[in-house]
Write the structure tokens for this entry.
Amino acid sequence: MSSDQLPEAGTSLSGVRTLIVEDEPEIAEIVDAFFRREGAECLITGDGVEALDLARWWRPELIILDLRLPGRDGLSILADLRARSGQVPIIIASALGEDIDKLTGFRLGCDDYVVKPVNPLELIARAKVVLRRRRACLEDSGYMTFGGVRVDPSAFRAYIGSTPLELTPSEFKLLCLFVERGGRLVARGQIVDQALGGDANDRSVDPHVSRLRQKLERLAPGVRLTSVRGEGYRLDLTP
């Protein structure tokens, strides 16, 4: 599909954390320049192992993924990311253009597949489409997920995989806040204001988080509540 055949995206890339996984520097720099022109925040890596590390700590909202990479190939990266957190949109941009390559990519969970040489404007248009589609799916489902944790705020339910979590109202609000932040720091003040409320204060934070941490550790060994001394907490995925 050419760029003039793509539907109107209607989605901004402004502020979208975009991880560009591409081992050809010239291509990576071109993609980076075009996405930054749209307001995206970009990181570039040409190494497969580093790509997974960046995906874990930076929590990108969009990934442009090549397949032929040193360290670890793109398909194994895709499979790993989908096993850990299914929400981030991933567009494969690869010179591998056979049907079997595309089918494998889609089977493993990519949102789109573009064959090189890539028109950067087409890539931007496709990125807007997949972001809009993913956001619409989240709005329709009402679920928020992070790793194996899934919360349904409207139904006041939380799950680890298919196993329900038994949480108090405060613990549920806490978990919603951590999942919504998706691995980013949640300040202690935010926890008080958005999850605990009422007569809560800074001293109320640690006991509530500790009880939630214990429940997660029992059922979700791949998820950890990490304390950032003097600042707050974040929900992390463990290797």
